[in-house]
Q: What sequence folds into this?
């Protein structure tokens, strides 16, 4: 398994998946494909909660930023009774044209 940061320098040409999906696939111009996916366990759910920015801004230009981070401290907004376990995972991708942040949410 590769680290997300290894996408830096790649040029994406297609992205499949989006808000509400449990996976996203990033296709690069060198023929490689990268799957953003979390194998759910037992009572767990994971999905793309939102995407900030315009995906078209990262298509066709080399990625200058590819960063992954996560947060287990902030409860989901607008939800009084949230699950006992939750994680936000952020994938930040930027080119000279602009960038996006893909936010996955997982709970159990």
A:
């Amino acid at each position: 398994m590769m680290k997300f940061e290894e996408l830096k320098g790649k040029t994406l040409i297609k992205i499949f998946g989006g808000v509400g999906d449990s996976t996203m696939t990033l296709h690069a111009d060198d023929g490689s494909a990268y799957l953003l996916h979390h194998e759910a366990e037992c009572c767990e759910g994971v999905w793309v909660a939102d995407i900030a920015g315009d995906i078209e801004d990262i298509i066709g230009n080399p990625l200058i930023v590819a960063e992954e981070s996560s947060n287990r401290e902030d409860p989901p907004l607008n939800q009084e009774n949230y699950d006992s376990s939750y994680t936000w995972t952020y994938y930040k991708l930027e080119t000279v044209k602009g960038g996006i942040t893909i936010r996955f949410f997982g709970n159990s």
